[in-house]
Amino acid sequence: MTYLLFMKRIDELDTQKMRDKEKGHIQNYTSIFDGTIDLPNFKDPIPKETLRWSAMEGMKDDEMLYHLQQKVFPFIKQLGGENSFFTKHMDNAVFLIPKPSLMRDAYRTINEIYSEIDREISEGTKDGSQDSRALLNDIQGDVYEHLLDELKNAGKNGQFRTRTHIVQLVVELVFADISDKNVFLDENFRIADPACGSTTFLLGAFKYILTQFTSDKYIKPSDDNFMIGTTGDLLPANGHKKLEEDTFFGYDIDPTMVRIGLMNMLMHGITQPHIDYKDTLSKNYNEEARYKAVFANPPFTGSIDKEDINDNLSLKKATNKTELLFIERIHKMLTEDGTAGIIIPQGVLFGSGKAFVETRKLMIEQAELKAVVTMPSGVFKPYAGVATAILIFTKGRSTENVWFYEMKSDGYTLDDKRNPDHANSDLQDIIARFKTRNPQTDTDRTGSVQKCFFVPKAEIVENNYDLSLNKYKQQIYEEVTYIPPKDILAKLKTLEDEIQNDLAELQSIFQ
Fold this sequence. Notes:
Elements: H1 2-22, E1 36-37, E2 46-47, H2 61-76, H3 85-90, H4 100-124, H5 132-153, H6 164-175, E3 191-193, H7 200-212, E4 220-221, E5 227-228, H8 239-245, E6 248-252, H9 255-267, E7 274-277, E8 291-296, H10 322-333, E9 334-345, H11 347-350, H12 354-365, E10 367-375, E11 388-395, E12 401-406, H13 427-435, E13 452-456, H14 457-462, H15 469-472, H16 485-510
Parallel strand pairs: 3-6, 3-8, 6-7, 8-9, 10-12
Antiparallel strand pairs: 1-2, 4-5, 9-11, 10-11, 12-13
Helix pairs in contact: 1-5, 1-9, 2-4, 4-5, 6-7, 6-13, 10-12
């Protein structure tokens, strides 16, 4: 189904770009359906125009299935050119719809989805508050990501997508101290995810940057009150090219997830996604000091064969736990002054083993650990029940104080249903307090005034680099007034007398 949605999407994208070219909005664009293509099993070249999704309208069921299997699918596997990441990783992809009737049902369903998308766009652009092209990108991307969630719920392919509102929170925290939006367009500004999965973190960063270059009239709050605007109408001439071709880089060890990630990026308008099949903890990956921002929700409680661990990772001697090794890998990937946002299991914060201590020491002594945001255990239900935390650190600076925040609610119930509970959400409070954090005033550790406080580095070092919030939070014990024992005994005696009197009365009735 993901391949079919992608086929429809590239037809829509190409049609939109050809319209933009006709209107003079873009220059030098050549349709991907221009010309012909040589395909196996066909003597004559195939006109690419016949490979559009829209070209299948009116085909019989068996003709449509044959057309997709033998022509369209081989064509999309070559998109991006012979040396592109997309072509490289689509090489072994297989089209598995076996029956013409199923193909017809899928074709009809996807067209119905796009009819609904057209209706949403028509409604959303009536008052001029939204741009139709940006809205199309958003909705189509949302449809694709919803499908990923459905696949995950069904237990297929092992897709695990970090929830969008958590992604947006981490992205906001990582970029909170960037005051000049033009920094994002610097030729050396690159963003990576060393365990990217379906690329939700990279897309979250992409949407954040687009929002910074979007006019206020196109910016709207999400359900979680994040301000989102993906028009990018204020981007300079080279802005789109920079973001779409040389900003976002992702790696994963699952070939299926690499293909899904590539298609997900393309569905959101990243024309040349750099998503590659690579184990970033292994000896085959040696990139260092290249990225200004790194995001990750790496595998929890995983392990790797010590023989495969990159020799440049000093933690190799002490551990093969991936949740620890990824922290060092991310630190190495960052440039000086580069910032990371990582989701980790809370055990990393207080583990007493040598590797745990050394990992925390790395973030304290060789970086500025800006924030530790603890999250309740239900945030990743129903897929994982482990309590997690967000770490924000910047390489090349020194830690003086660490800001802690105890998240009580992410805006959803903490059971398996995860129903909306936005009234109790801490997300926007976290962002607001992080942006105005002050070690001189954020000193109350009781939680009675606010849910955040600073802890000096010296205190953390003294506690073996322990980063668990409860280690430093001050518990308030209210005095409880108890009834004096003699009064309790007197009350018991009165009750006993009443019981005896009632029993005597019952006995007299039955005599």
